[in-house]
Design brief:
The chain is of the alpha/beta class. The protein has 17 helices and eleven strands.
Length: 573
């Protein structure tokens, strides 16, 4: 019995030892297999972390460089622009070149020198100078060559050609990817917020306000734009607008309370949303506009000067008549009340802020909605001219190439053009003859479209052109809408708005033209109502009448912002 027990214990012991040995061996084998995998995983994780860190560092450096360039643009207080426009992303770059506007012979030398120098760099796939934008467009390998080296190469060629200190014209549009508009609007928004806070603090602690001469001087600059011209000639248009916007916000907060800077801040937020959408569509479609070097235009269309000034829109019409009457109104208020303060309030209330805010909000919303649909605004200032369009010129070839054959989209576009109330001009084309109306004007086959556009401008018309391939006609227009029949059409660079959805986008833009005139007229009425009510309160208001006199103006401006934004959305729906 005892022997059997011992035998059983021995067998159990041997089994336990054997099991333990087998378990240990299996664990060792598993550890042997897991350890290399874990090591490789750790190495890959470390490598990935390193790449993430390098990427984060690069993004931080790029953001810092963009901030520095934007700051230089805002501090560029010169009659002509000294700061270079630079955009680079995902192996593509647009770099402005100095001296391209100094003569044909120097331009040819600069173009050849810049392209040869850049093509000679390791990692640069191709480089071509865009004659329309004045920038060298290039494709490169980001892992082989950086933007700083590209910039240094361009600077070396400029120095060799003797144009190192040449500046850039303000008339050249800012590319949608540039950081300067973001910096300017952000700075204005921050000052608006600070002005609101200053107004709250001043009222809470009953601090003295600014002398009345300060807001009156700012109001005079807003009413009479001719007074800005010396400042524009000295520091440039961008800095003038920025300086006056900042001054208006500060004065509004320290003198008139929080009303004006608060409404101004709402307007800045709409502008920021427009700029953001513009940058996003540029990032998305930049490569489509010019997929290769063959799409870069080497010649710039001739830009003809106007024979007569552009027709004034409803806002300009009202401002022209308001400028001489505002001082007379203030004088009448002073005669009735014998109070310089009330007269100053009447002058401040006369500024048509509601009209300006309404048109700006409408244009910003239209720009944002179009960008969301893929339209690239190469020059967003064209959207601020929608209410002055008096002639719509359509290249008939677009109706066929972009719409297949004369199809419902073409019919819809022509109907939208006629609904604007402007004269409609089309090029002669047998394929669209059945779509014409007796009121339509036809450009003969022997007449150049650009010549008809220039003729319309010389007669004082505000001209919108819709074309796909006629670069010279697009360059001559006040608002140029490109409907390319193929990706990267060369004529697109001469346009203000480059469509993505063919005739559908052209239809939306024409709808915006129709709504723009209505918006401007109604916003002028709002401004008139606000100014009239404010002037009345300046006469009969009680003590502390500054806020009471300007309150109707602020309310009218806010209503103009809200109504214009809603109208723009409905027009493009």
């Amino acid at each position: 019995m005892a022997g059997s027990v011992v035998s059983s214990l021995a067998s159990v012991t041997r089994a336990g030892v054997s099991g333990a040995w087998a378990l240990g061996a299996a664990g060792a084998r598993a550890a042997g297999r897991v350890a290399p995998v874990a090591a490789r995983t750790g190495l890959r994780a470390a490598e990935g972390s390193g790449r993430v860190t390098v990427s984060a560092v690069r993004q931080g450096v790029s953001a810092a460089a963009r901030a520095v360039r934007a700051g230089r643009v805002l501090a560029d207080l010169h009659p002509r622009r000294h700061t270079r426009q630079v955009w680079a992303s995902h192996g593509r770059a647009h770099i402005e070149v100095r001296g391209l506007d100094l003569g044909s012979s120097r331009r040819e030398r600069l173009t050849g020198g810049v392209t040869r120098a850049l093509r000679g760099l390791s990692g640069v796939r191709w480089a071509e100078v865009n004659a329309v934008t004045g920038q060298v467009l290039l494709s490169f390998d980001e892992s082989s060559v950086g933007v700083d080296r590209l910039l240094n190469t361009v600077r070396a060629v400029e120095r060799a050609q003797g144009v190192r200190d040449a500046d850039f014209p303000w008339a050249q549009p800012v590319i949608p990817g540039d950081d300067a508009p973001v910096a300017a609007v952000t700075a204005e928004l921050l000052v608006d917020c600070a002005a609101v806070a200053a107004g709250v603090v001043r009222r809470a602690f009953r601090l003295p306000s600014l002398p009345r001469v300060v807001p009156v001087a700012v109001a005079a600059l807003e009413l009479e734009r001719g007074l800005r011209r010396p400042l524009v000639r000295r520091i440039g248009p961008l800095e003038t607008d920025l300086l006056l916007s900042l001054a208006g916000a500060v004065v509004g907060g320290l003198y008139g309370g929080i009303g004006m800077p608060a409404v101004d801040a709402a307007n800045r937020m709409l502008l920021l949303r427009e700029i953001r959408a513009r940058r996003q569509v540029w990032e998305r479609r930049e490569r489509d506009l010019c997929p290769g070097p063959a799409c870069v235009p080497h010649t710039r269309p001739v830009r003809h000067l106007r024979g007569r000034a552009r027709p004034p829109g409803p806002v300009e019409w009202w401002e022209t008549r308001l400028a001489p009457t505002a001082p007379l109104t203030a004088a009448a208020v002073f005669a009735l009340t014998v109070s310089t303060g009330r007269a100053a309030d009447a002058l401040l209330a006369a500024v048509p802020r509601a009209a300006r805010y309404g048109r700006e909000a409408f244009a910003a919303t239209v720009g944002r909605e179009l960008a969301r649909r893929g339209v690239v605004p190469l020059d967003p200032s064209a959207l601020r001219l929608l209410d002055v369009v008096s002639a719509v010129v359509v290249d008939s070839a677009v109706l066929v190439t972009a719409g297949g054959r004369p199809a419902p989209p073409a019919v819809t576009v022509l109907a939208a053009a006629r609904a604007t109330g402007a004269r409609v001009v089309l090029t002669e084309d047998e394929r669209v003859r059945e779509l014409l109306c007796p009121s339509d004007e036809i450009v003969g086959g022997r007449e150049r479209l650009a010549d008809r556009v220039c003729e319309l401008r010389d007669h004082g018309e505000g001209v919108l052109v819709i074309s796909g391939t006629d670069a010279e006609a697009l360059a001559a227009a006040d608002i140029a809408v490109a409907v390319p029949d193929a990706p990267g059409a060369e004529a697109s660079w001469s346009a203000d708005l480059v469509c993505a959805d063919g005739l559908q986008d052209a239809w939306r833009i024409l709808r915006a033209v129709t709504a723009a005139r209505v918006v401007s007229r109604r916003c002028v009425r709002l401004a008139l109502a606000g100014s009239a009510t404010g002037t009345l309160l300046a006469v009969v208001g009680r003590r502390h009448g500054v806020l009471r006199a300007l309150t109707p103006v602020h309310v009218a401006s806010l209503l103009a912002l809200l109504w214009s934004t809603r109208t723009a959305r409905r027009a493009l729906r």
